[in-house]
Amino acid sequence: MNKIQARESQNVEYKSSWHDKYLEWICGFANAQGAVMYFGVNDEHEVVGLKQVDKLMEEIPNKIVTTMGIVTEVNLRESDGLDYIEVQIEPSNIPISYKGKYYYRSGSTMQELRGTALQQFILKKMGRSWDDIANDFATIDDLDKSAIDYLLKNGYENGRINKDELDAPVEMVLQNLNLVNEEGKLKNAALLLFAKKPQRYFTCVQFKIGRFGHSEADLIIQDVIEGNIIQMADRVMEVLKSKYLTMPIRFEGMRRIEKLEIPEEALREILYNAIAHKDYMGAPIQMRVWDNYIEVWNEGELPAGYTPETLLERHSSRPRNRNIANAFFKAGFVDAWGRGYKKIREGFECAGLPMPVIESTDGGVRVTFQRNNANGSQTSSQTGSQTGSQTPSNQILKMISDNPKVTRKQMSNELGISDRMVAKYLKKLQDNGIVRREGGKFGGEWVIIDTEDL
After folding, report:
1. Using an 8 Å Cβ cutoff, are 334 and 265 in contact?
2. What is the pLDDT confidence band of residue 252, given thresholds at 50, 70 and 90?
3. 225 with 299, same domain?
4. pLDDT tens digits, one per residue of 154-170
């Protein structure tokens, strides 16, 4: 059988035959990045042909138009006497439904969108974000004037708000921040940022902190921070400093210096990111504090096409909540150029700590970073000269050199970091061609190939 040369496209699908079920796929591709679909071609790209091709050439475009209201290019192709059909599906700039249902192609799966996912999808297609929706019942009396003043004061001190705006009427401030609609109704963003009791409108406006011992079941203490989100990072920092983190004392001559164990500006940047980019239809933000590391998780997938690695590189700022992000920018809390993780990296490097590990997981983003332990002494990966030779990657290499059969659990215990972080470091070493795994999970061993890239 002859193989076809597919038309260039981000998505190409091959189907040996035609079924009306594939109209769902066409809907999903139109709602995503578009695609080219071939019917009468198997998964090996071999033309197997279609029966009643003339009838299909009439039915397929008609069914697409009548059920979805979109026009696609449907072409009849031939190879060695066998007919097949090519359907070119362009991405739509409006939501497309098929029989009242919305489908979306994500990766290699076709999903039916429902609930919150459907709402977010439709808003995105309309060029809006969830925080842009107006609330029909809330009024300016529901807002906390001191929270608005807090934003203005910080914005002025950071050079992002003019002095004459400090005494502006509340209505004008809200208009300037795009927090009211054309009818003067408050948007969701205004309530999240400044409401006296935002929990009246959104049940998951919370930041949960838990201190854990040996396992998830070993919860030692916990706190739940509530209230408006413009001041939430301050409240979280107060609780962390008073109950969860240490501030080792050192002296420079007669001067007593207490410095937080985690670089404070970098930690604040992590908090601002979690608060500003959270999906406020989802679960509360969660911070897990362990002996040697901390995890911060917020609900909300990364922008389409973005990976955790994208955040560590130069990238455009694509906020989930545009109005909230704008308010945080005006207050001087975040940058408008997608440089947040660059600032985090610089802060941790200056403190001699490894760069936090970023993961897309459980429908959100998790940031894991090392800390100093409870008595203020440094973790095993931080002791010594703080030179490159003391990085976790190099320590892992030394452990492998000493014992090629060393397990991830042993590495985790020795380094004082999570098994998940060890897996991240090992993957990076493997991807860079520095180590490889030989043999199975049980009985296998690690082999060092090259250390020049460290």
Report:
1. no
2. low
3. yes
4. 999 999 999 999 999 99
Cα–Cα dist 241/211, whole Å: 13
pLDDT digits (tens, 9 = 90+) for 175-191: 999 999 999 999 999 99
Task: Quote the CA–CA distance of 325 and 121 in Å, as a whole number.
Answer: 19
Question: Same structural domain for residues 273 and 328?
Answer: yes
Final residue of a structural domain among 100, 125, 150: 125
pTM, rounded to two decimals: 0.67
Q: What angle do CA 222, 228, 234 make, to 5 degrees?
A: 60
Task: Supply the DSSP string of 407-449, one letter for each residue.
Answer: -HHHHHHHHTS-HHHHHHHHHHHHHTTSEEEES-TTT-EEEE-
Residue 437, token pair as written in the block: 């795994």
Whether residue 377 is contained in a domain is answered as: no
**Is the domain of 180 the same as that of 328?**
no
The total number of structural domains in the chain stands at 4
Q: What is the DSSP letter of 240?
A: I
Q: Are strands 364-370 and 357-361 parallel, antiparallel or unpaired?
A: antiparallel
DSSP 144-199: -HHHHHHHHHHHHHTTSS-GGGTTS-HHHHHHHTT-B-TT-PBBHHHHHHHBS-GG
- The answer to whether 253 and 296 have CB atoms below 8 angstroms apart is no
Q: Is residue 342 within 8 Å of residue 356, measured between CB atoms?
A: no
